[in-house]
Amino acid sequence: MNARTPLVAGNWKMHKTVEEARQLVWAMLDGLRAVPEVERVLCPPFTALLPVAQMLLGTDIRLGAQNMHWEEEGAYTGEISPRMVAEFAQFVILGHSERRAYFGETDDMVRRKVHAALSHKLTPIVCVGETLEQRRAGQTEAVVRGQVLAALDGLQPEQAARVVIAYEPVWAIGTGEAATPEEAQRVIGQVIRPTLAKAFGHEAARRVRILYGGSVKAHNAAAFFVQPDIDGALVGGASLDPEQFPAIVRAAAARA
Ligand code: 13P
Q: What is the DSSP string of 20-78?
């Protein structure tokens, strides 16, 4: 029995109207319910949170948002607050590379959001990962370590242990070119977990769930989940496929 419950989250990104979201959830629901040993999280766009929450009532499938602001409320046109997210969701994806690249999200903003999430009893899924340019320049370790430390700065070990980290190399997202399981294990097991251990102690580092993300599909998922430090996946494109997403969840059950 692994000490860390495996977790597979589907990041729907900017896909699905309410009606489309309902159809997708209906198509996956039985497949997802059949694997209770894996924590399963659906992260639809904000507009579909309420209808999907209603469909998940009475199941143990969890809901996540893809982003949020750090303030409780206020004059921030177009933003969604932690209180609003917490009405429906148990998880929130923070610092996704698309937010960092296209919406100017900085390490400091991610840090504020992580604190806000924890104080609203939301589990943050904090995304970190190097770009292709950074990888070619040999900066992977420094970039990933810096993002982890910045996002979790100021947390107590007990709080840090509740955070989920997703290692998503930017060059592997949406490209069909996943990292090899060995590469992902190396970054997660030799950079991220030791960084957590140094900052928050071995016990907290041992408890943090660390996911891999970037072109995870039904056919390659199992190879990631046999790696000792990879506790699950953050899935983009394949989470919109009612066959593939439950298949990835089943592959993660082998870790439980
Ligand atoms: P893909 O699985 O489509 O590569 O996306 C990964 C991702 O960005 C999940 O957050």
A: HHHHHHHHHHHHHHT-TTSEEEEE--GGGHHHHHHHHTTSS-EEEES---SSSSSS-TT
**Full-model pTM:** 0.98
Residue 216 beta carbon below 6 angstroms from any ligand 1 atom = yes
* Residue 207 in domain: yes
Q: What digits encode the pLDDT tens for the residues 40-94?
A: 999 999 999 999 999 999 999 999 999 999 999 999 999 999 999 999 999 999 9
Residue 215 Cα to ligand 1 middle (Å): 6
CA of 98 to the centre of ligand 1 (A): 10
What is the domain count for the chain?
1
Structural domain boundaries enclosing 78: 7-253
Among all residues, which ones are annotated catalytic?
Answer: 96, 168
Q: pLDDT tens digit string along 92-107?
A: 999 999 999 999 999 9
Ligand 1 contact via 11 beta carbon (within 6 Å): yes
